[in-house]
Design the sequence.
C-alpha cells in the first residue's frame, strides 16, 4: 500500500515540533527516516499509524486519508511496550486472530527467527532489554501487515543480532513486499534496507533531503555507490548538527 | 520431591555441592527468623501471665493469657463460639460483597468517562468526607436494628477504599499500552478486557485489601451498636457482665480472623499478580 505524507506538521501546546514534511512511499517501498534526536520522527510515525490525529496536513494510505488506526498496519514502537501480564508467546499472539492453535504455531515460528524459542513462557519482567525488543518485533511481524512502521526497531540490539534481524526484514520484504517506514539512527542500516532515505533536521523538524538509494537489494556493503551515499548523508547530517548549534548559540 | 522430579535432574542437583549447602543453611535461618520474631511476644505473654499469677495486678480487671485461652476453649466446647464467628463473618462478607460491587460499578463508570467523572466524583468525594459512623443513626432509623443496617454500614466502609483504587487503577493504566491496543484497532470493549482490566488489577486488589481492613472495623462498630450474637456482641457482653476475659477473647478472635482473611486475599494477590515486576519476587 502506498503512503503519502503531505505538508505534515504537529505542535504540542503551541510549540511546533515538526512542520512541513512531505514524502511518499510507493507500494513495497522501504523508506528510512533519518534525523537527530527530537526532530519529530516518532511523531510522524504516530500520525501515519493513525494514533495521533491532531496534526496539520494530510496523510493518505492507498489514497485514503488516515483518521484513526487501521488494523492492517504493523507498528514497532521505540519501546517494547509488551503487556507485562502476558508471556512472550501470548504477547506475540496479541494481534493475531483465529483459532488458538494456529496463532501459537505462527508465533512459535517467528519466535524461532528472533531467537526466543526457549523463552516462550517468560514474562516481560524476566527479559533483557534486547529480548523484550525482539519480542515486540515478533509481535509486529507475525501478523504480516501490508504496511509496517518501525521506530528504531534494532537500536537496543547487539551488532550481530541486528544484522540477523535486518536480514529477516529483507526476507520478509522479498516474500510479500510490505511497504515500510523505518526510523533509524544507523546510516548503514538505512543503506542496507531502504529504497529512499528521508533526512530531517532541526527543531522544529523540517525536511532536509530525500535521497533515492538505487542499488538492488540485497546489497553488498562494499558497493562503491553506497559508500558515496554514506559520505553524502554524513555530510548533510553534520550540516544539520552545525545548523542546530548555530540556532542554539 | 524425588517422585515429581526427573531423575537425571535430581542427580544433576545432587552433584552440585554448593546448591545443597545453601538449602541446608536455608532451613535453620528460617527457624532463626521465626524464633526471633516470636521471642518478644512470648516474653510479653510470660510477663503478663506472671504478673497476674503473683497478683501484681488485679486479676478481675486483667485476666491472665491462660484464662483468655481457657475462655475461648470453653466457648468452643459448648459450641457458642462457632455461632459468634459465623454471624460476624456473614455480616463482614455480605458487606464486603455489596461494598465492592458498588465500588467496581461506580468506579469504572467514573474512570472511563470524563462526563461521569465530573458528574459523580465530586459528590462521592463529599460523601467520603463524612465519617461513616455518622450515618449509623439514620441507618437504624431507616433499616431497623437488624441485619440490613449492619450490612449497609459495613458496605459503606468497604466502598471508599475500593472505589478510590478502582478509579486510580483505571486512570493510571499506561497510555502506551492502550496505544498498542489501538494500533491493532481493538474495539472499546476489547481494550477494556485485554488491556485496562489486567493493567488495573494490582490497584484493585490493593483496594480490596484495605477495604477488608475497614470492613472489620465496621463489623465491630455495627455489632457494638446492637447485636445479640457475634464477636462484637461478646465485647458488649463482657463489658456488661464485668468479664474482661470475654472481651479479651473477642479481641484475640478478631485479630485471628482479620489476619486469616487478609492472608487469603494476599494469597490471591500473589497468585494473580505473579507477572508484576515489583521488588519482592
Ligand atoms: N506528547 C507530547 N507532548 C509534548 N511534546 C511532545 C510530545 N511528543 C513529542 N513531543 C515533542 O516533539 C518533538 C519530537 O518528538 P519525537 O518523539 O517525534 O522525536 P524523535 O525524532 O522520535 O526523537 P528520538 O530520535 O529521540 O526518538 C520533541 O521536541 C518532543 O519534545
Ligand atoms: Mg523517537
Sequence:
Amino acid at each position: 500500500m502506498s503512503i503519502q505524507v503531505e505538508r505534515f506538521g504537529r505542535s504540542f501546546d503551541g510549540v511546533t515540533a515538526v512542520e512541513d514534511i512531505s514524502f511518499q512511499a510507493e507500494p513495497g517501498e522501504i523508506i528510512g527516516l533519518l534525523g537527530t534526536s527530537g526532530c519529530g520522527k516518532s511523531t510522524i510515525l504516530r500520525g501515519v499509524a493513525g494514533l495521533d490525529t491532531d496534526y496539520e496536513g494530510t496523510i493518505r494510505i492507498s489514497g485514503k486519508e488516515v483518521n484513526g488506526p487501521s488494523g492492517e498496519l504493523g507498528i514497532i514502537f521505540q519501546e517494547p511496550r509488551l503487556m507485562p501480564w502476558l508471556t512472550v508467546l501470548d504477547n506475540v499472539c496479541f494481534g493475531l486472530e483465529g483459532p488458538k492453535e494456529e496463532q501459537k504455531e505462527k508465533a512459535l515460528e517467528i519466535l524461532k527467527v528472533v531467537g526466543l524459542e526457549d523463552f516462550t513462557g517468560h514474562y516481560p519482567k524476566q527479559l533483557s532489554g534486547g529480548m523484550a525488543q525482539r519480542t515486540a518485533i515478533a509481535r509486529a511481524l507475525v501478523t504480516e501487515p501490508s504496511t509496517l512502521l518501525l521506530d528504531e526497531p534494532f537500536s537496543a540490539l547487539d551488532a550481530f543480532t541486528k544484522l540477523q534481524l535486518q536480514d529477516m526484514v529483507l526476507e520478509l520484504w522479498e516474500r510479500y513486499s510490505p511497504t515500510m517506514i523505518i526510523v533509524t539512527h544507523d546510516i548503514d542500516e538505512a543503506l542496507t534496507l531502504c529504497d529512499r532515505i528521508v533526512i530531517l533536521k532541526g527543531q522544529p523538524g523540517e525536511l532536509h533531503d530525500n535521497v533515492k538509494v538505487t542499488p538492488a537489494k540485497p546489497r553488498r556493503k562494499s558497493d562503491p555507490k553506497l559508500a558515496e551515499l554514506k559520505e553524502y548523508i554524513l555530510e548533510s547530517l553534520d550540516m544539520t548538527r552545525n545548523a542546530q548549534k548555530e540556532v542554539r548559540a | 520431591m524425588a517422585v515429581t522430579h526427573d531423575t537425571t535432574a535430581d542427580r544433576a542437583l545432587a552433584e552440585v555441592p554448593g546448591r545443597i549447602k545453601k538449602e541446608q543453611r536455608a532451613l535453620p535461618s528460617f527457624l532463626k527468623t521465626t524464633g526471633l520474631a516470636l521471642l518478644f511476644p512470648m516474653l510479653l505473654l510470660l510477663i503478663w501471665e506472671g504478673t497476674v499469677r503473683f497478683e501484681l495486678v488485679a486479676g478481675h480487671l486483667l485476666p491472665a493469657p491462660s484464662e483468655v485461652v481457657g475462655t475461648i476453649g470453653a466457648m468452643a466446647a459448648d459450641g457458642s463460639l462457632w455461632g459468634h464467628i459465623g454471624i460476624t463473618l456473614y455480616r463482614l462478607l455480605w458487606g464486603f460483597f455489596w461494598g465492592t460491587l458498588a465500588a467496581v460499578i461506580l468506579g469504572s463508570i467514573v474512570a472511563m468517562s470524563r462526563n461521569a467523572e465530573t458528574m459523580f466524583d465530586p459528590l462521592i468525594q463529599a460523601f467520603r468526607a463524612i465519617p461513616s459512623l455518622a450515618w449509623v443513626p439514620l441507618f437504624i432509623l431507616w433499616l431497623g436494628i437488624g441485619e440490613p443496617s449492619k450490612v449497609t454500614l459495613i458496605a459503606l466502609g468497604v466502598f471508599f477504599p475500593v472505589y478510590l483504587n478502582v478509579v486510580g487503577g483505571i486512570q493510571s493504566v499506561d497510555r502506551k499500552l492502550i496505544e498498542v491496543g489501538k494500533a491493532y484497532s481493538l474495539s472499546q470493549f476489547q481494550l477494556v478486557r485485554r488491556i485496562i482490566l489486567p493493567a488495573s488489577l494490582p490497584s484493585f486488589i490493593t483496594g480490596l485489601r484495605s477495604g477488608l481492613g475497614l470492613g472489620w472495623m465496621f463489623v465491630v462498630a455495627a455489632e457494638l451498636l446492637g447485636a445479640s450474637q457475634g464477636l462484637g456482641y461478646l465485647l458488649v457482653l463482657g463489658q456488661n457482665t464485668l468479664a474482661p476475659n470475654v472481651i479479651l477473647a473477642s479481641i484475640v478472635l478478631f485479630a485471628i480472623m482479620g489476619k486469616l482473611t487478609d492472608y487469603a486475599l494476599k494469597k490471591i494477590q500473589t497468585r494473580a499478580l505473579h507477572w508484576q515486576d515489583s521488588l519482592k519476587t
Q: What stands out?
A: The first helix of chain A runs from residue 41 to 49. Chain A has a mean pLDDT of 87. The two ends of chain A are 43 Å apart (CA to CA). DSSP finds seven helices and ten strands in chain A.
